[in-house]
Design a protein that fits this description.
Elements lengths: L7 H7 L17 H22 L11 E9 L2 E7 L8 E5 L8 H15 L5 H25 L4
Antiparallel strand pairs: 1-2, 2-3
Helix pairs in contact: 3-4
């Protein structure tokens, strides 16, 4: 994975929070598709230049862009992936976060919190809302445990 850190000046010139893409059928709000398109361009350029420097049989391929990208630890991440068009809806991609040994309540709460973050604009308000969602679920679990005397 490569992080193409677009500098603040580039973002100021090309990304405006109230920008609406004029591409027919674009599902990305706030001009996010501009950043995704630039990352795709840089990724394909990097692949071309790296492949020229390698001896054959090594051949890299452009795979996907993740935006946003939430990295929890090595091999544990979540993001919305874009493979072909920056104007299409991103598909959720989670690796290393799913555990089969957790109960359905934990799995559903975890997935709802991740989705809440992925489909947000990552502003402080949106992150706080995701945290509040998790806290509400934990509080509901505590109430159920106390009422049923299962965790006393």
């Amino acid at each position: 994975m490569v992080d193409f850190k677009l500098d603040k000046e580039w973002k100021r010139r090309h990304h405006h929070s109230n920008t609406v893409c004029k591409h027919t059928g674009c599902t990305n709000s706030g001009g996010k598709c501009v950043e995704i398109a630039k990352a795709m361009e840089l990724g394909k350029l990097a692949v071309t230049q790296l492949n020229e420097s390698f001896d054959k049989p090594i051949c890299l391929e452009f795979e996907k862009i993740s935006c946003p990208y939430l990295l929890f630890a090595k091999k544990r991440y979540a993001g919305l992936i874009f493979t072909d068009s920056p104007h299409a809806s991103g598909k959720p991609d989670c690796k290393g976060l799913e555990k089969r040994d957790k109960c359905k309540f934990v799995t559903d709460t975890h997935q709802n919190c991740i989705n809440s973050l992925l489909y947000s604009d990552m502003s402080k308000q949106e992150v706080d809302r995701s945290v509040a969602l998790a806290r509400t679920q934990v509080e509901a679990l505590i109430v159920v445990c106390v009422m049923t005397h299962c965790c006393v």
